[in-house]
Design goal:
There is one protein chain. By secondary structure, the chain is of the alpha+beta class. Helices cover 53% and strands 14% of the residues. It has 4 helices and 7 strands, in the order αββαββββαβα. It has helices at residues 2-49, 94-103, 148-157, 168-211; strands at 79-83, 88-91, 108-114, 121-123, 128-131, 142-145, 164-165. The protein has a 4-stranded antiparallel β-sheet. The protein has a 3-stranded antiparallel β-sheet with strand order 6-5-7, with helices on one face. Helix 2 crosses helix 4 (168-211). It starts with a helix and ends with a helix.
Length: 212
């Protein structure tokens, strides 16, 4: 009888130990999943704080033209900005980055351009512009560099492209002139169309009167 009782006690102890082991394993797995989720969230947050890469379907927020990705030779001229609302927008050329604030009521928290040598994103305000005979998406012809040394080296090694040091003030002036010229052309076109519409109305009235 004692032997049977001892066997029963041992059996119950085995069940209790097994249950505790399963619970510990389950808790360990749960902790691992929470840790992994936290790590993923941190990675997303880190990415969310810095510049993004444009996708194949992204277009310029100003001119609605194609935005080139990093792998494309034209991708080195792509710019981007982060709005006060946390939205990331892309531009196919530096002038568009400046002109959008003339057209739209938008403020940027951060702005980036690509370094011409490395294609890495660099802060636009501290980037060094160089004007050269370069084919850029909107024909502005500006390349950007991370520091003066890189810009000066590019200038010394590319005499055939007529490179010269530039400034954001120069880019801003040129982009403003182009924007104002376009606005005037649009206004003149609207006035012309309006005038043609009035002429048609007058012609119609004349025909109606002559019919009587």
């Amino acid at each position: 009888m004692k032997k049977i009782f001892a066997v029963m006690i041992a059996f119950f102890l085995m069940i209790i130990v097994s249950a505790c082991g399963d619970e510990a394993a389950e808790n360990e797995q749960k902790d691992g999943q929470e840790t992994a989720a936290t790590e993923v969230k941190h990675e997303e947050d880190d990415h969310g704080d810095g510049p993004h890469e444009p996708g194949a379907d992204d277009v310029c927020a100003f001119c609605n033209m194609k935005v080139y990705e990093e792998a494309d030779p034209m991708g080195v001229f792509t710019a981007q900005a982060k709005t006060k609302d946390g939205e990331y927008v892309f531009f196919d050329d530096s002038g568009c980055l400046l002109n959008i604030t003339r057209r739209d009521d938008v403020e940027f928290e951060e702005k980036w351009v690509r370094d011409y040598i490395t294609s890495e994103w660099i802060d636009a305000d501290s980037a060094i512009p160089v004007k050269a005979d370069l084919k850029t998406p909107m024909k502005y012809g500006y390349a950007f560099f991370n520091d003066n040394e890189s810009a000066e080296k590019f200038i010394s090694e590319n005499n055939g492209k007529n490179p010269v040091m530039a400034s954001w003030e120069q880019i801003n002036q040129i982009s403003k002139e182009r924007y104002m010229k376009k606005m005037k052309m649009n206004s003149d076109s609207m006035d012309k169309n309006k005038g043609m519409g009035m002429d048609k109305d007058m012609d119609g009235e004349g025909e109606e009167e002559s019919g009587h």
